[in-house]
């Protein structure tokens, strides 16, 4: 099987890279903190010292990093030259649609295709390959990368056409809806508890009858158990970054999003308290604290 490049083995990138190795792909890995990627060597990964060293001429490089600046920092002339004509850079990061569109144009000037493929999955779902991908970009390039996404994390792949920014728009919408669901559940469980209704019974009924599905069942259980800190697989800081991008995209398209403003405020307040190791599920603490719980 072919050798691919992989940039960024954080909480989410690590299980995806591991799955690709287990599937038989050769994987050249660059991670800013090299030590975090060392265990992947035991699975056969080759660790390199720069983003461009992950590339094979005409090959594929996948990247999964924190934000727009991090993607722009790795998408250098050196990386594009190393990929060369026919190469593909798959950006799996949650970034601004405008940034993706600019990067797609920059890549194309060097004969490299840029495909947007943000990840819908927490690390445990990615490891189990039951996550989902949304993709946009060049049609032929998308067909070429689909097997990698399926081998790495994706149970389903949703194609949004050729505009590189479209997949980022949908990813931001998805993260906004999750944040909104967290706020909805926190307020609802607070109302139950304040009125002497067992919130766990309410949770069981609501997630069985009205809102079945992993978002409500998984995040709802975390709210009930107050699993707000520890070793976050998706930090409150990254959650705030995403809500900032949601509202930035909304402003540019004149789309009022009052709930997005609320969850952005919840996350800002949480981070202002300097709570260490806060997962973004901790935005639920705002509604609970407001209710005196």
UniProtKB/TrEMBL annotation:
The active site is at residue 171. Keywords: NAD, Oxidoreductase. GO terms for molecular function: NAD binding; NADP binding; oxidoreductase activity. SUPFAM superfamilies: 6-phosphogluconate dehydrogenase C-terminal domain-like, NAD(P)-binding Rossmann-fold domains. Pfam families: NAD_binding_11, NAD_binding_2. Residues 165-283 form the 3-hydroxyisobutyrate dehydrogenase-like NAD-binding domain. Residues 3-151 form the 6-phosphogluconate dehydrogenase NADP-binding domain. PANTHER family: CYTOKINE-LIKE NUCLEAR FACTOR N-PAC, OXIDOREDUCTASE GLYR1-RELATED. This is 3-hydroxyisobutyrate dehydrogenase-like beta-hydroxyacid dehydrogenase. It comes from Chitinophaga niastensis.
């Amino acid at each position: 099987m072919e050798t691919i490049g992989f940039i960024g083995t954080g909480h989410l990138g690590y299980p995806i890279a591991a799955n690709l190795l287990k599937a038989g792909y050769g994987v050249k890995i660059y991670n800013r903190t090299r030590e975090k990627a060392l265990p992947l060597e035991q699975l056969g990964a080759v660790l390199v010292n720069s983003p461009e060293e992950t590339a094979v001429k005409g090959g594929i490089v996948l990247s999964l990093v924190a934000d727009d600046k991090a993607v722009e920092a790795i998408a250098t002339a050196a990386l594009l030259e190393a990929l060369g004509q026919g190469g593909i850079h798959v950006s799996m990061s949650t970034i601004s649609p405008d940034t993706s569109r600019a990067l797609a144009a920059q890549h194309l000037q060097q004969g490299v295709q840029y495909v947007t493929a943000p990840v819908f999955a927490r690390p445990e779902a990615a490891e189990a390959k039951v996550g989902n991908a949304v993709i946009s970009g060049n049609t032929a390039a998308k067909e070429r990368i689909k097997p990698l996404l399926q081998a790495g994390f994706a149970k389903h792949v949703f194609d949004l056409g050729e505009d590189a920014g479209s997949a980022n728009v949908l990813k931001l919408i998805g993260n906004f809806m999750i944040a909104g669901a967290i706020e909805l559940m926190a307020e609802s469980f607070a109302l139950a508890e304040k009125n002497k209704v067992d919130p766990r019974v309410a949770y069981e009924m609501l997630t069985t009858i009205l809102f079945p599905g992993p978002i409500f069942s998984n995040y709802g259980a975390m709210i009930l158990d107050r699993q707000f800190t520890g070793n976050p697989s998706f930090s409150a800081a990254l959650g705030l970054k995403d809500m900032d991008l949601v509202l930035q995209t909304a402003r540019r398209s004149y789309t009022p999003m009052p709930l997005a403003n609320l969850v952005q405020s919840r996350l800002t307040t949480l981070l202002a308290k300097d709570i260490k190791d806060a997962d973004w599920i901790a935005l639920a603490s705002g509604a609970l604290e407001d209710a005196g719980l």
